[in-house]
UniProtKB/TrEMBL annotation, chain A:
Sequence segments annotated as region (Disordered): 369-388
Protein name per UniProt: Cullin family profile domain-containing protein
Biological source species: Cladosporium halotolerans
Gene3D superfamilies: Cullin Repeats (1.20.1310.10), Cullin, Chain C, Domain 2 (3.30.230.130), Winged helix-like DNA-binding domain superfamily/Winged helix DNA-binding domain (1.10.10.10)
Matching InterPro entries: Cullin, Cullin-like_AB, Cullin_homology, Cullin_homology_sf, Cullin_N, Cullin_neddylation_domain, Cullin_repeat-like_dom_sf, WH-like_DNA-bd_sf
Keywords, comma-separated and alphabetical: Isopeptide bond, Ubl conjugation
Taxonomy of the source species: Eukaryota, Fungi, Dikarya, Ascomycota, Pezizomycotina
Pfam families hit by this protein: Cullin (PF00888), Cullin_AB (PF26557), Cullin_Nedd8 (PF10557)
GO biological process, one term: ubiquitin-dependent protein catabolic process
Residue ranges annotated for the Cullin family profile domain, each copy included: 443-697
Automatic annotation (TrEMBL), chain B:
GO biological process, one term: ubiquitin-dependent protein catabolic process
Taxonomy of the source species: Eukaryota, Fungi, Dikarya, Ascomycota, Pezizomycotina
Subcellular location per the Swiss-Prot or TrEMBL entry: Nucleus
Provenance organism: Cladosporium halotolerans
One cellular component (GO) term of this entry: nucleus
Residue ranges annotated for the SKP1 component POZ domain, each copy included: 7-70
Signal found in the keyword field: no
Family that this chain belongs to: Belongs to the SKP1 family.
Function, as annotated: Essential component of the SCF (SKP1-CUL1-F-box protein) E3 ubiquitin ligase complexes, which mediate the ubiquitination and subsequent proteasomal degradation of target proteins. Controls sulfur metabolite repression, probably by mediating the inactivation or degradation of the metR transcription factor.
Top-level taxon of the source organism: Eukaryota
Protein's UniProt name: Elongin-C
SUPFAM superfamilies to which the protein is assigned, alphabetical: POZ domain
Length: 831, 100
């Protein structure tokens, strides 16, 4: 070696000046280089001087012999690879490895196949590694050539050239004629190994990875275009194809064999596995592609089937399998950002469950016990008790409905939070389904209002502020879904009115909170009237106090004076007909006109207050609604106390009951009065009269009167006597008012409400149309429809037919006219 | 000499030797590869490079440049390095050779 180096040095030692002019013999210099290259390939480089080789190559290039050198090097490499390296690898090929379709018919066990495959992979890897290292060294030595010659002559660098040679000489050359090339064998071996890995056998990922690296490092052509890597061109396609086939088959098998949860877990595991495999065994660049393949095969094509399986989403929801649901979500989210399948399934489930709740509520409210049904037929006068039972039943149904809907909502919210990663699209879908469910139930508005009513009266007792907040929040939540907000408003007003006037509400503060929440949710106009009701209450209180002070200031301390407390209500804001329960509107009008007759002592107070009120507010008309009042009276029962001593009770009863009782004041003991007589003397509407008499004469705890004959019903011709023998252990007695319950409307009431509601909607629609037309002057029919609907959507969802009717009526009344020669049907506003 | 020390020796054709910092010398791609231990050439074993076609005068200037470069690597407004006119051609050739 040293003699060789010495010879080279002796020959080419340059004169001190003019490196370029040195006389260089190409053949000799090349001989030096060739010998050195051979040494490098046999890993004996340490004895070589880099400087010397570099200098030799440098000189050849300087002498413009770069092309010759390039060709020589290429030829040298080609020979080396063709003769030495290929031999080494082909020696390792066992016969079965050479048969391309060996996978099916191979006789050897997988283990053997794996081992021989691994040996082959190892050899190839080593050959490749060696080649790379050597070529790295060669390239360094020939750096000057690369830099000067290759760049100037647009040749691929010697490194790239030699990589190409490796590809052609080793991978692309058939082992023998008629046999596959090493590349094909390599591909098949790798695919086999991956298949083994999928089947759960251990393989050596590093070995495969190294070979994949090799394929990634090689290109189709010398140009080294990025997407023409050998890996992409020849391996990846096959890999994806095989995987797709494998997973399609596996997916179908699993769909048949296992339940949805298992399937999801499996699919998830497979995806993760492929991900890992790409990292550890194949190339990162394949990850998205193989994931797509797996997703396609295992999820996208199967999702629908999966969700609809017996053990699919329905089952998971029913059994609260949150984890599995979240898996399904995860999988679906991978293939479809909109998650349409899952969304559809969830919506279907909600609708189904919601419909069940609705049906249950309807069933519960329309299937009263037979007795009550009978009573209902006989009319409301006959058996208020049983009809009250029916009403109670309905109320319970209403409360149950609300609770059920809330539970449903809670449940799906829970699922959404825990399993669906709070996904936006799903939330929208779930909300829409909830709204559908709630709106599909025609009594929704009433029931929600009833729910709030119930809570205001009883529910919030013994509850902390937080719990109350929660209850209110729930109610608002339902309200948000509600479409017909105007109907809700009607009901709520009615219920609120009862609560306020009858002092049923537990806490005015909570009421006010509720209103303010509604204000936030539904806007100012919605709560305007509700707030006005509260204002009336406050004003009335002031008024009562004012009146009391006024009376006191008059100075005549009359012990027999009747104390008066009054609520003055603005007739527009209060739904007062709510208290004429059970009457048709005709009757209501009538009773509104006819004034009951007050006994003189009460009448005096009434007059006094009217005077006082007119002094303060002139021009206002007071209408007395005595059917809503109540009274505290002291009644003395001759034989009420122990040992037959007289005893005085404080009785709280309705105004009507007070009137009735006062009648007996003037009567001699033991005398009786007939129903007709009472009616004539008090002018109380027959309905209310019957009801009050019932509570006074029939209810066992408050039997101040004795009825003749003794029966449960109050009938014309009955006579009443004061019950001298009334006994009670309490000083204070409250006379229940039969009808003042928390209840669902009866059918008649409902019809009425609906009718009224339709009327008020009609006005709202008309107002909206006029508003729009006034602003636009001329507008096409369709856009008028759309604008009207969008304007009113905050209150309710208007009926198109209704809008059309209203437009017609406005045209009749000459607010609008049709534009005759317009291309589309249009209207003009007539000022 | 250890396989990889911080200093390397550059020897000119007329026998002058210069001990320079490895990192500075490796500015030259040729020298860097000569000394790359993973390639395993003789130079990397001895940490010594013998240049048969560069004389001491030029190699001195080359080493001067190595340090000059190292010093001003990251600064702006670098003062010009003083190069005697008669050395210009030879320096250029050496630079080409060393791929500086």
């Amino acid at each position: 070696m040293s003699s060789l180096a010495g010879r080279g040095r002796g020959k080419i030692r340059p004169p001190r000046r003019g490196l370029a002019s040195a006389d260089v013999d190409f053949e000799t210099t090349w001989a030096v280089l060739e010998r050195a290259f051979r040494e490098i390939h046999t890993k004996n480089a340490s004895a070589l001087s880099f400087e010397e080789l570099y200098r030799n190559a440098y000189k050849i290039v300087l002498k413009k012999k770069g092309d010759e050198l390039y060709a020589k090097v290429a030829k040298f490499e080609e020979q080396w690879l063709g003769e030495n390296v290929r031999l080494q690898i082909t020696r390792l090929l066992t016969p079965p490895l050479m048969v391309l379709d060996a996978s099916g018919r191979s006789l050897e066990s997988t283990a053997e196949k794996r081992i021989s495959g691994e040996v082959f992979l190892k050899a190839l890897k080593e050959a490749w590694d060696d080649h790379q290292v050597c070529m790295g060294m060669l390239t360094d030595v020939l750096m000057y050539m690369d830099r000067v010659y290759c760049t100037d002559h647009r040749q691929p660098s010697i490194f790239a050239k030699s990589m190409g040679l490796f590809r052609d000489q080793i991978l692309r050359t058939p082992v023998k004629t008629d046999l596959p090339t090493l590349l094909d064998i390599l591909k098949r071996i790798i695919l086999d190994q991956i298949q083994m890995d999928r089947d759960g056998e251990a393989i050596n990922p590093h070995l495969i990875k190294a070979n994949i690296y090799m394929l990634e490092g090689l290109y189709e052509s010398e140009q080294e275009v990025e997407d023409e890597k050998l890996y992409l061109q020849s391996f990846e396609q096959d890999f994806l194809g095989t995987s797709a086939a494998f997973y399609r088959e596996e997916g179908e098998r699993l769909m048949k064999e296992s339940d949805a949860g298992t399937y999801c877990r499996h699919a998830k595991r497979r995806i993760d596995e492929e991900h890992d495999r790409c990292r550890s065994t194949l190339s990162e660049s394949t990850t998205p592609k193989i994931q797509r393949v797996v997703e396609d095969e295992l999820i996208r094509h199967k999702m629908k089937g999966l969700i609809e399986m017996d053990s699919g989403v329905q089952y998971m929801v029913d059994n609260d399998k949150l984890q599995e649901l979240s898996l399904v979500f995860d999988l679906e989210a991978r293939v479809d950002p909109k998650k349409s399948e899952l969304t559809r399934a969830m919506q279907k489930i909600i609708t189904e469950m919601g419909t069940n709740i609705n049906n249950a509520a309807i069933a519960a409210s329309t299937a009263p016990p037979p007795a009550a049904a009978l009573a209902e037929k006989e009319g409301e006068k006959s058996k208020p008790a049983s009809s009250a039972a029916k009403i109670n039943q309905q109320t319970v149904a209403a409360l149950k409905w609300v609770e059920d809907v809330l539970a449903l909502k809670d449940r799906f919210d829970g699922i959404w939070k825990k399993a669906f990663e709070e996904d936006q699209t799903l939330q929208v879908a779930l909300n829409r389904s909830m709204a559908d469910v709630i709106n599909a139930f025609n009594r929704g508005s009433e029931y929600i209002s009833l729910y709030i009513d119930e809570n205001m009266k009883k529910g919030i007792r013994n509850k902390t502020q937080a719990e109350i907040d929660q209850t209110l929040e729930k109610a608002i939540l339902l309200l948000r879904y509600l479409q017909d907000k105007d109907i809700f408003e009607t009901y709520y007003k009615k219920h609120l009115c009862k609560r306020l006037l009858l002092n049923k509400s537990q806490s005015i503060d909570v009421e006010k909170q509720m209103i303010s929440r509604m204000k936030i949710e539904l806007g100012n106009s919605f709560t305007l009237k509700l707030e006005a009701m509260f204002k009336d209450m406050t004003l009335s209180e002031e008024l009562t106090n004012g009146y009391r002070n006024y009376i006191n200031s008059l100075g005549q301390a009359d012990p027999k004076r009747v104390d008066l407390s009054i609520n003055v209500l603005t007739s527009m804001t209060w739904p007062l007909e709510a208290f004429r329960g059970g009457q048709t509107s005709d009757q209501a009008n009538e009773s509104g006109k006819t004034q009951v007759v007050f006994p003189p002592q009460v009448e005096r107070v009434k007059m006094g207050f009217e005077r006082y009120y007119n002094e303060k507010h002139s021009g206002r008309c007071l209408t007395w609604l005595s059917n809503m009042g109540d009274a505290d009276i002291k009644a003395t029962f001759p034989n009420g106390g122990k040992d037959g001593k007289p005893r005085t009770h404080e009785v709280n009863c309705s105004t009507y009951a007070m009137l009735i009782l006062l009648l007996f004041n003037d009567l001699p003991a033991g005398a009786s009065i007939s129903l007709e007589e009472i009616q004539a003397r008090t002018n109380i509407p027959p309905n209310d009269l019957a009801r009050n008499l019932q509570s006074l004469a029939v209810a066992p705890k408050t039997r101040f009167l004795v009825k003749e004959p003794m029966s449960r019903d109050v009938k014309p011709g009955d006579r009443f006597t004061f019950n001298d023998n009334f006994k009670s252990q309490f000083v204070k007695i409250k006379v229940g008012v039969v009808s003042a319950g928390n209840k669902v409307e009866g059918d008649r009431e409902r019809k009425e409400t609906e009718k009224k509601n339709n009327d008020s909607r009609g006005f709202a629609v008309e107002a909206a149309i006029v508003r729009i037309m006034k602003q636009r002057k001329e507008l096409a029919h369709t856009s008028l429809l759309n604008e009207t609907i969008s304007q009113l959507s905050a209150q309710f969802k208007p009926d198109v037919a209704m809008i059309k009717k209203k437009v017609e009526s406005l045209i009749e009344r000459e607010y609008l006219e049709r534009i005759d020669d317009a291309p589309v049907p249009s209207y003009r506003y007539l000022a | 000499m250890s396989a990889e020390s911080d200093y390397v020796t550059l020897i000119s054709s007329d026998g002058y030797s210069f001990v320079v910092q490895r990192s500075s010398a490796c500015i030259s791609a040729a020298i860097r590869r000569m000394l790359d231990p993973s390639l395993g050439f003789a130079e990397s074993k001895t940490n010594t490079c013998r240049f048969e076609n560069i004389n001491g005068l030029v190699l001195e200037k080359v080493c001067e440049y190595f340090y000059y470069n190292e010093k001003h690597k990251n600064s702006k407004d670098v003062p010009d390095m003083d190069v005697p006119a008669e050395l210009c051609l030879e320096l250029l050739m050496a630079a080409d050779y060393l791929n500086v």
